[in-house]
Design brief:
Elements: E1 2-6, H1 14-24, E2 30-34, H2 40-52, H3 56-77, H4 81-100, H5 108-115, H6 117-132, E3 138-140, H7 156-168, E4 175-179, E5 182-184, E6 190-192, H8 198-208, E7 213-218, E8 239-241, H9 242-250, H10 261-266, E9 271-275, E10 284-287, E11 294-310, H11 320-330, E12 335-340, E13 344-349, H12 355-362, E14 367-382, H13 390-397, E15 405-408, E16 414-420, H14 424-436
Parallel strand pairs: 1-2, 1-7, 2-4, 3-4, 7-9, 8-10
Antiparallel strand pairs: 5-6, 9-10, 11-13, 11-14, 12-13, 14-16, 15-16
Helix pairs in contact: 1-3, 2-3, 3-4, 4-6, 13-14
The structure holds adenosine-5'-diphosphate, aspartic acid (ASP) and magnesium ion.
Length: 438
């Protein structure tokens, strides 16, 4: 069995939905994971913002314009009256439900149900479209099998058992459609895998069914060596190792959700990135193989806060770092980068929900400085084979940019550099010119 995930732009209009329909309708057994149509999750966030503000009339107008957009999709996508009706009824049932939230209490709990609608609608549209064109398929409701535990981690046992049970309800079917992104939490409530989470859904499902391959179909022909949103002349990488892809995804390469490689890597399942707009391009293949020495790619992760604690008495005393780490652990905040000197230790975090508590706890041990608006630049490759000169080349490229922290040597795959976010675009371009242009 294969898993094929199609992102928002891959299903952004009726023509694209038909194109995806063609790409998935061969006889290879598969589970197809769909994102919401491009823009929908953002629109649902906007709708939620109106509801938080109790701006009922703006919310109503906004929702009804979304509903009309979906009516037009159904009108174009379906050719028979029967299916146009199915489509409209399905859209109305979701939008009537969304409208019910436009009354009283609106909390994060309600917001999660609102955000789930995009994937529910796109998967239903695809299932009806396939039915109308005579391609047998079954819809597997993600809310019946996808679950996270109290630590927000996938509940793999539950997922495997329930997914297999859902599949077994449809003997003789080779083509299954499901929703990306959405899940239930430990309390059985509707939740999600965070923005961009459909990639993670695909990887979790791939691991659960021990798929032969997980394909992530998007709007670009694979993993590029730099961020194409900020740098011109980026080029596709043919092959990456799991470790390299995981580092790049975690450190900001938007093409993959930050933790989407891990489930595939755990089960050694190849991940292939493909372009829906250019299906014949080979894309990028991510496997457990070491794929050649040297620097392969660069990514950037924004929204980083640097925290430095200075303590001439304590620093190198036994157990000092343990105490510092325990503070972060007790506030369930993970550290991305770390650097130490004799009198101080610097760390970075990207979740700031508990920043104030962390700082006040750290102040028991020394003077604490907090620097916001930082970006981690991550240079990734296999740096063991060609170990001489790698760090120099990266640093040389950035000689004109102030660097606050450097991390090198913790793995063979990564050099991380902390810079001001306002220097990011310049840094990515300088690295591109220096590392990748012949
Ligand atoms: P989808 O909606 O299919 O999940 P995303 O927008 O989440 O698509 O991811 C694809 C986008 O990721 C590309 O259009 C590109 O702009 C961006 N991107 C950022 N870094 C990279 C990279 N290193 N290689 C390829 N694409 C990247
Ligand atoms: N629709 C969700 C989002 O926009 C999930 C995804 O597209 O992967 O974040
Ligand atoms: Mg995405």
């Amino acid at each position: 069995m294969r898993v094929m995930k199609f992102g928002g732009t891959s299903v952004e209009n009726p023509q694209r939905i038909e194109e995806v329909g063609r790409l998935i309708s061969d006889s290879t057994p598969k589970i197809v994971v769909l994102s919401a149509m491009a823009g929908t999750t953002n629109d649902l966030v906007t709708y939620s913002e109106y509801l938080y503000k109790k701006d009922h009339s703006k919310a109503k107008v906004f929702l009804e314009s979304m509903r009309k957009k979906y009516y037009r999709v159904a009108e174009e996508l379906f050719s028979t009256e029967e299916y146009k009706n199915h489509g409209r009824q399905m859209i109305d049932s979701h939008f009537d439900n969304l409208d019910e939230f436009n009354r009283d209490v609106f909390t994060q709990h309600e917001e999660k149900t609102v955000l789930a609608k995009g994937e529910m609608i796109s998967a239903a549209l695809m299932a009806y479209h396939l039915q109308e064109t005579g391609i047998s398929n079954a819809l597997l409701p993600a809310l019946n099998f996808m679950r996270i535990d109290k630590d927000q981690e996938p509940d793999n046992y539950y997922i495997r058992e329930n997914l297999n049970r859902e599949i077994a309800l449809h003997p003789g079917i080779n083509l299954f459609i499901t929703q990306g992104f959405i899940c239930r939490n430990a309390f059985g409530e509707i939740d999600n895998l965070k923005r961009g989470g459909s990639d993670y859904t695909a990887s979790i499902i791939g691991a659960a069914i021990e798929a032969e391959e997980i394909q992530i179909w998007t709007d670009i022909d694979g993993f590029h060596n730099n961020d194409p949103r900020y740098v011109k002349n980026t080029t596709r990488i043919d092959e990456l190792s799991f470790n390299e892809a995981a580092e790049l995804a975690y450190f900001g390469a938007k093409i993959l959700h930050p933790t989407s490689i891990r489930p595939a890597q755990d089960k050694n399942i190849p991940v292939r990135l493909k372009n829906t707009m250019n299906p014949d391009s080979p894309g990028t293949l991510i496997t457990g193989k070491i794929t050649g020495a040297g620097i392969k790619a660069v990514a950037a992760k924004d929204g980083i806060v640097a925290i430095r604690i200075k303590s001439d008495r304590m620093l190198l005393a036994f157990g000092f770092l343990r105490k510092v780490f325990e503070i972060f652990e007790s506030h369930r905040t993970s550290i991305d980068m770390i650097a130490t000197s004799e009198v101080s230790v610097s760390m970075t975090i990207d979740q700031i929900d508990h920043l104030n508590e962390i700082v006040s706890d750290l102040e028991n041990y020394g003077i604490v400085e907090v620097v916001p608006d930082q970006t981690i630049i991550c240079v990734v490759g296999d740096m063991i084979g060609e170990s001489r000169g790698m760090a120099v080349r990266a640093l040389e490229a950035l000689r004109h940019i102030p660097i606050r922290m450097i991390s090198y040597g913790s793995s063979n795959n990564n050099i991380s550099l902390l810079i001001k976010s306002s220097d990011k675009i310049e840094a990515l371009n300088a690295l591109s010119n220096h590392l990748f242009q012949a």
